[in-house]
Amino acid sequence: MRCVGTRREENGAGLITESRTTNQVLAVVAALQNRLNASREIAPITLPNCRLIKGIECGSEDIDILPNGLAFISSGLKYPGIKSFAPDKPGEIILMDLNEDNPRAVELRISRGFDLASFNPHGISTYVDKDDTVYLFVVNHPHQKSTVELFKYVEDDNSLVHLKTIQHDLLTSVNDVVAVGPDSFYATNDHYFSDFILMFLEMFLGLTWSNVVYYSPKEVKEVAAGFYSANGINISPDRKFIYIADVFDHNVHVMEKHANWNLTQVKKLQLDTLVDNLSVDPSTGDIWIGCHPNGMKLFYYDPENLPASEVLRIQNILSEEPVVTRIYADNGSVLQGSSVASVYEGKLLIGTVFHRALYCEL
After folding, report:
1. Which residues form the active site (predicted)?
2. Which residues are catalytic?
3. Which residues are documented as binding site?
4. 36-361: which CATH topology?
């Protein structure tokens, strides 16, 4: 009898343990769906003077515009778990001159010696030196690794001269960079792991192991940590603050930059969308963001249920009441998976992870 009674007790304990395990799994799944905004749908917001940019068919993941109106665009990203319309085509850097009446997309020629076949560009950032030399920093994922490529832009023949490839043990899963010198930058690691399976597990479990790294030839160090997935990064016009987007926590962090390059958090602005790349209007300080209203549609691509696009503008982010305005929203019928929005003198460029790009006159 004791054996029977013991078995019942063990079975009962097993059922309780199984129930707890099931509840824990369900809680993790629910948390993941919340981070992905899996149930969110958006109402469309159209702009009157927009056109899709001819020549950009396979992504325009990040955009950086120089003060003179030259816009650099990274295209052709192949990223684990994300759709690609041209998986075998190398990536490229595209240039648009926004001073033209009808700006065209032109692929920039890259100097010999650089491995174009494995070029897989992600986030980008420009830096104009005191002598007006233009440097372009490009996050690259050759063979699913992470490097930062440093180029010099030669305006005379619309080309990029490759200067060096930057690799470091702290630059493990780089998403975006913001240049703070001719050979120094801040970089976001969107995951702790670089292996795809472990990256997915990290996202599934909701680990906050993502970070921001400062790099210079003399010093490399972690300067901020504790993000679900640090994504876009940029700098304020006065160079005093660094803005960091946490895509899975739906917020933008404002960090004060110190003389030793360390960062301390000033505030965090919570939003209701997955924030990707950040662009800063140099004249107003406004932050423009390409966003993913529903991350589930982005990661689980369904041509019958397309990933949407959304653009936000944040005004006066340092104030007690920043103003957040939805500028553009589309259900994917025009633009799929918006990742960046950049402005120049009344002109707006909206880029995507793997789809097309939109040019608008505001």
Report:
1. 122
2. 122
3. 61-62, 124, 175-176, 231, 276-277
4. Neuraminidase (2.120.10)
